[in-house]
Amino acid sequence: MTERVLLRHVGAPGQEDIETYMRHGGYEALRRALRELSPEDVVEMVDRSQLRGRGGAGFPTGRKWKFVPKDAPVKYLVVNGDEGEPGTFKDRTLIEGDPHLLIEGVILTCYAVGIQKAFIYLRREFYRGYRKLERAIAQAYEHGFLGERILGTDFHCEIVLHPGAGAYIAGEETALLESLEGKRAMPRLKPPYFPAVMGLYNQPTVLNNVETMCCIPWIVKYGPEWWLKQGPPQLYSVSGHVNRPGVIEAPLGTTARELIERADGVRGGRRVKAFYPGGTSSRPLRAEHLDVPLNHESLAKLGSMLGSGAVIVMDETTDMVQVIARVCAFYQEESCGKCTPCREGTRWVTQILDRILHGRGRMEDLDLLESIAKNMTGTCFCPLGESVPPSLRAGLEDFRDEFIAYIKGARAPVEMPVRIREGILAPGG
Amino acid sequence: MLSEAAREDIRRLASRYPVARSALIPALLRAQEELGWMPPEAQAEVAELLDLPVELVAEVASFYSLIFTEPVGERVIQLCTNISCLLNGAEEIRRHLEERLGIRPGQTTPDGRYTLRIAECLAACDQAPCMIVGTERYGPLTPELVDRILFENEGRR
What we know:
Chain A contains 18 helices and 9 strands. In chain A, 41% of the residues lie in helices and 12% in strands. The radius of gyration of chain A is 22 Å and the shape is globular. Chain A starts with 17 loop residues before the first helix and ends in a 22-residue tail after the last helix. By secondary structure, chain A is α/β, with parallel strands linked by helices. By secondary structure, chain B is an alpha+beta fold. In chain B, helix 2 (24-35) crosses helix 3 and helix 3 packs across helix 4 (54-61). The interface between A and B is large, with 63 and 47 residues.
């Protein structure tokens, strides 16, 4: 196992203070870049590191930066800190545990792309992270790493910390731009989609995730070859039925079995029934896939995805009908209502699962769920609605007997795991 | 209905953005910090401060779950019941909270102290099951810990 990189100083005592961060080598990458490297050099380094965005889509970061027109007078960086994919908590861990790492990554990105204004969009629920980042940003200004004429050069950069107000959909990047512009977080029509040319306020914009930003100082400090030799480092949020849930840094392509071992195994020594490899928008996999390398390609072959790297472990006692119902209810609650397949589909699916859990399901419901899943595939305006069919399909194909057990009365009815917004689903369905 | 300090903060928030409208969410949150929730009159005041049509402010305020367009208790409890918390006993915590507070999700205790809300994933699954009370996060929760957080706190005040 290689040494930790992204998490190296996370949670170290006093790490949120700039003095400690600097004692641990912080802001050296920025000094190096401003002294020795041209902006183009930094872009090249990131490109050569093969860094792929850590928000879920996995787009190559260097290539994204290269799309931004060099001569544009105004450009923005928007950092997506709206982490909300169920099971994902790596960004929050980075923000709370090493806020200056994020800030240094942001400044370096601005330098590389020629940006003078960055916005960090933090979901509202990150009250603690917001306080820590606010303080860290103030310290960075005091030390001359932000503001005018940074480290005596003619490079200017400022960071605005921007709070969300409770909306998972704001994590979808066009919806995030809308939200940042003071509107409802509803996704923009795409294609065409070129935020690098027309993003925030219709200006060229780079959008990157928090973890992606936290990789940059390391790549600039030690170089892309070193970075690749480290794995490259990737954060997995491991939760559910494990003994020690937490963020685990492991090379891309680590298997779920290895991650579970590093999380001290399954609780009670039980066996795994299933796991989500990349948050609830990915298709959950059965135990037989525990040895599949968690990377973009292998998971795509199984109809799943690495997504946000959130591995949610479910042991053999897990009620998959409850799990899938709760996941669908989440998407129903968070649907922005803009497009019909998502708005109606998420609601129908949740209602049907609710009645199955209450012992009032019918065998035809299984076909109905399948047909709704089909009609929500490729028809939704944005990825939110498209996140429902993978869970539903896995449920119907891999855990069908559990649904049938509820329908046939072999399993005692339960209260719906959650009727989220009172009034949408009346008690009892 | 907003204090001069809040009005001043909102004007200053607007100056941080190239387009003042971007300050809308931060402004609503600043106003809500003072009032506890966002009644229509306060939304109108924010609209005036940012020079925006009031219906546009209402449109945004009604979209986000943490802008309260109805009165809430002194402290809002956001209990996560999403997947990792569900797998770790969030339903038991929900029932415990309902019983101890005597309310259902979406309701406020008669003494106006607490509003109980079901939250979506709070990105703290390493602390599942977890909740946020006011602006502080707690977890992993047990019924005993919930009692300490809610009721011992109360005794101290």
